[in-house]
């Protein structure tokens, strides 16, 4: 029985899973140092002596991967020269398949599925790399690997460029390696990071369309055929612009543009199905229309004023009970552009909110109140018309879910602030006869100072 070849005393090469690339072959190996028995991918550069291109590829990939630690970038385990094989090697974490395998099935994806599963993590990895001044420069389906759980990982930094250490001579040796249509048509890299932005745009088009684009002339046509929100379409159009100066400046800029557009699209979708059904009390309507006491308010005018004020981004929070000093989850406060209103759930129609009071507030007052409230983008369709029970309850659920999370976040922040304060070395815990803990300032000589801090709601343990 022939003994298995072991690379660097650690990686036992297996006979299966051979992948051949332009300048290397990839073999699956057993990582004997891993207690979980994990596999590794061993990239073996072609056996050629004194080949400056191979040396450049090896140096580029290892130098890049040593700096990159990101959940969506393939981890490098080891690298070096294997004397027995007479070849350079790079050991990477083993990932079963690539996007190329999935793209071969030619199954188009929706934008929502693509961005959630592939686009968001991938652009995050590129943004991280660009933040370290590292460009990938060969973004294509075969270089996006997918774990068994479907997590995408960016691989193969063989022709990466590190902007802070540009080497013109070395760049010349790898300039001819291109992957059409994923590499842009320009033959130079005068605009930094533009190549990766173009590659991401083409990759998105290919996955969204099921691989319809085979060359540059097809890109614009494929984009026009896709069912996309106008915001997303405009961003992808800029990504694949043949003028690199018109593309997003780098992956970080592109990431923020995509996140902003995705939020807008998500808000729009939520607003279609989530309504907050309102009913005005006479007192609130009178305050809004400023009619004299005893005079019937102009109900339609009052409704229009409130709907106009709450139509965009608003700030919301639960009420506060001044007597108990506790949050009042039965009251919801909403601040629009000018009006501050208090809502309660209708006791007869639980899917409806009653506007208990409304007051026009100055900008300074509103600004102070907004500091601690939850900023709510236009995800709700505020209405005084019955939208139907399902849509009304969906609006309530959306609002309450976000308020509950905001409340929990504030409580967690307050708890952490208390922990930091009580962890001050100048504070010592002194037993309290009433069973709790009183925190007193104690000096280095154990003499108590004059300051005393109460428990302040932090649970004694």
Care to describe what's here?
The chain is an alpha+beta fold and 461 residues long. A hairpin with a 3-residue loop joins strand 1 (6-7) and strand 2. Residues 163-176 and 425-461 have low confidence and may be disordered. The chain has a seven-stranded mixed beta sheet, with helices on both faces. 37% of the residues lie in helices and 25% in strands. The protein is elongated. The chain folds into four domains: 1-94, 2-Layer Sandwich (Phosphorylase Kinase, domain 1), CATH 3.30.200; 96-273, Transferase(Phosphotransferase), domain 1 (Orthogonal Bundle), CATH 1.10.510.10; 275-419, no CATH class; 423-453, no CATH class.
**CATH homology group of the largest domain:** Transferase(Phosphotransferase) domain 1
Content-based structural category: alpha+beta
Span between termini:
65 Å
Q: What is the class of the largest domain in the CATH system? A: Mainly Alpha
Question: Which ranges are low-confidence, i.e. pLDDT below 50, for 5 or more consecutive residues?
Answer: 163-176, 425-461
Continuous helix count: 12
Please state roughly what percent of the residues sit in beta strands, choosing from under 5%, 5-15%, 15-25%, 25-35%, 35-45% or over 45%.
25-35%
Q: Let me know the largest β-sheet.
A: 7 strands, mixed
CATH topology of the largest domain: Transferase(Phosphotransferase), domain 1
CATH architecture of the largest domain: Orthogonal Bundle
Rg over alpha carbons: 31 Å
User: How many strands in all?
Assistant: 21
Strand order of the largest sheet: 17-13-14-15-16-12-18
Total discrete domains: 4
What share of the residues lie within helices? 25-40%
The average pLDDT is 83
C-alpha geometry: elongated
């Amino acid at each position: 029985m022939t003994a298995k070849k072991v690379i660097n005393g650690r990686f036992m090469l297996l006979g299966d899973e051979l992948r051949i690339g332009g300048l290397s072959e990839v073999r699956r190996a057993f990582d004997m140092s891993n207690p979980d028995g994990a596999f590794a991918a061993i990239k073996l550069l072609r056996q050629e002596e004194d080949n400056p291109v191979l040396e450049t590829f090896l140096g580029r990939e290892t130098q890049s991967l040593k700096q990159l630690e990101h959940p969506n970038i393939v981890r490098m385990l080891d690298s070096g020269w294997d004397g027995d094989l007479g070849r350079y090697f790079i050991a990477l974490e083993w990932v079963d398949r690539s996007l190329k395998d999935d793209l071969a099935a030619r199954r188009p994806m929706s934008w929502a599925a693509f961005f959630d599963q592939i686009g968001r993590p991938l652009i995050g990895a590129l943004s991280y790399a660009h933040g370290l001044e590292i460009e990938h420069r060969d973004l294509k389906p075969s270089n996006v690997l997918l774990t068994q759980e479907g997590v995408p990982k960016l691989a193969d930094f063989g022709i990466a460029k590190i902007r802070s250490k540009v080497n013109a001579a070395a760049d010349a040796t790898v300039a001819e390696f291109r992957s059409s249509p994923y590499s842009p048509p320009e033959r130079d890299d005068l605009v930094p990071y533009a190549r990766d932005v173009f590659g991401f745009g083409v990759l998105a088009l290919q996955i969204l369309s099921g691989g319809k684009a085979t060359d540059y002339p097809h890109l614009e046509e494929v984009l026009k055929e896709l069912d996309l929100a106008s915001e997303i379409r405009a961003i992808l159009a800029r990504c694949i612009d043949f003028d690199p100066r018109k593309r997003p400046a780098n992956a970080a800029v592109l990431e923020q543009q995509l996140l902003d557009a995705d939020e807008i699209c998500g808000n729009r979708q939520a607003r279609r199905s989530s309504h907050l059904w309102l009913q005005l009390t006479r007192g609130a309507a009178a305050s809004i229309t400023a009619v004299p006491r005893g005079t019937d308010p102009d109900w339609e005018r009052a409704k229009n004023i409130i709907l106009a004020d709450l139509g965009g981004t608003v700030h919301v929070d639960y009420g506060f009970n001044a007597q108990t000093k506790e949050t009042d989850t039965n009251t919801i406060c909403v601040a629009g552009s000018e009006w501050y209103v208090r809502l309660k759930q209708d006791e007869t129609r639980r899917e409806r909110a009653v506007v208990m009071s409304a007051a026009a507030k100055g900008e300074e007052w509103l600004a102070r109140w907004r500091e601690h409230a939850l900023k709510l983008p236009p995800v709700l369709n505020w209405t005084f018309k019955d939208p139907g029970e399902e849509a009304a309850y969906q609006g309530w659920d959306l609002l309450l879910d976000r308020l509950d999370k905001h409340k929990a976040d504030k409580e967690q922040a307050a708890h952490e602030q208390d922990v930091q304060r009580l962890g001050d070395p100048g504070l010592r815990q002194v037993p309290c006869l009433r069973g709790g803990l009183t925190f007193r300032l104690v000096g280095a000589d154990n003499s108590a100072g004059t300051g005393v801090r109460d428990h302040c709601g932090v649970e004694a343990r």
